[in-house]
Amino acid sequence: MESVLHEILPIVILSLAVSLTAVLISCVLGMPLGVCLALSRMRGRSIIKALAFSGMAMPPVVVGLLLYLLLSRSGWLGEWQWLFTTRAMILAQVILDLPFVIGITLTAVEAVPEELQFQLQSLGATPWQLRWTLLGESRNGLMLAAMTALGRGLSEVGAVLMVGGNIEGHTRVLTTAILLETGRGRFAIALSLGAILLTLALAINLAFIKLRRQTSR
Hints:
This protein is mostly helical and 217 residues long. The protein is 79% helix and 0% strand.
């Protein structure tokens, strides 16, 4: 039992570390962009929105393949030497998470009544004050964006397997470990890892529900 726990614990920790880092980066980049797309009327806005929403259906294996070609020794980014590292896995998850963060943030901000924007502008609110207030009104949507991205990252297998390599003790996460143990015929360990993954997903949803109740109060 102790040997199994010693084998599983690093995998769980690495899975959380990679996914949480990717979500943080995605939120820092995606939420401001989502707000700007919701408030601005710049040229090409519709195209950017279409790309963001289309990105939600982006096949992870395609992302993994493109990153593999870019990060390989003969690729444009080969000098970074990121292939088969956690940095490559984080990059893959950021690319997959970003469309969700942008799209959900955009939708949440657009759902705020326009009357509130007009009232704030009539009161002399600066563009930053206007955006900050709208973010506060859209807080449930922002939390949903972060939680959705985290759930996407934790359940991702195709891209992280291709750019991470599933190296024991270095780039092995829950999803790739489940795939490996199933191939080995070690179904008990695979099921245990699957149960942990489902528990994490449930914990994410419960945390979102609790945060939403608190903010609603």
